[in-house]
Amino acid sequence: MVCIVVLFCVFFMYCSSCEGVKNLPENVKFPAVFAFGDSLADTGNNNPLKTPIKSNFPPYGKDLNGGLPTGRFSNGKIIPDLIGTEGLGVKELIPAYNDPNLNSFDMKTGVSFASGGSGYDPLTPRITLAIPLSTQLELFKDYIQELKGIVGEEEAQQTLNHSIYLLISGNNDVANYFNVGVRRIQYDIFSYADLLVTRASSIINEMYRLGARKIAVFSVIPVGCLPAERTVLGGFTRKCAEKINQGVKIINAKLYSETNSLTQKLPQSRVVFIDIYKPLLDAMENPQRYGNLSYTSYIAS
Predict the structure, then answer these.
(1) Cis peptide before 31 (omega within 30 of 0)
(2) Is 39 an annotated catalytic residue?
(3) Domain limits of the chain?
(4) According to the UniProt entry, where is the signal peptide (predicted)?
(5) Largest Cα–Cα distance of the chain, in whole Å?
(6) What confidence tens digit (pLDDT) does each residue in 48-93 have?
(7) Which entry of 16, 39, 74, 201 is annotated as an active-site residue?
(8) What is the pTM of this model?
């Protein structure tokens, strides 16, 4: 259900009503999907890195491609894959830019630059040894030059302007803010939210400068409901850490406002805020609404 909500919201960028893929006009085509951010969008970029944030070992990937781990932080597909396949029909999987086996088809139809453990805050990837968003954009610049070499300048520009861009970040920033403590000494949650949103805005502006026009900016998830946070702050019953989730709400509200502002400021752009906080929290609090979903297994997945 959560994946469907995400897809419907993405389609809302191009349709007057959020009705799903079957109602997309036939002439609406998206040549590629590009992803930036953290583990929710990392399809294997962390594999060659010297970081503890990795998922290229079992049981990760047990339900994908015969059970061979790919570096996705999931048992199967993750958000870029789902949007690229069920949502837009671009291709089955969105590969990592770090994948040594990339071919010309992969290059023409989109890749992920995301890195598990990254964040809007420059301090976050320094702690986790992930790829900073600023470096992800540098890699995107390298990609653009490679794409031009494959399809030529004009087609490359068309691909860049008409593709879907996913920005999924902020989750590790929140976790580090409440757990590491360095930023809490420097900022209260409101000023830290401003820092994150300012960084997000800078990233989006740079994506636009490089050719992105349709950008989906995902909300921060209910970080207070992650297993580690519930264990430390959830008490005997391991409830969600409400203090953390309240901080997430503050960040999401500011991020929502900024995305609306950017759409007005950036000509011919559509910058859309995708709220995955509410459906994820609802699934955690009301698992019976979603069939056989187990609360504990859901949040630990």
Answers:
(1) no
(2) yes
(3) 2-300
(4) 1-17
(5) 60
(6) 999 999 999 999 999 998 899 999 999 999 999 998 887 688 999 9
(7) 39
(8) 0.90
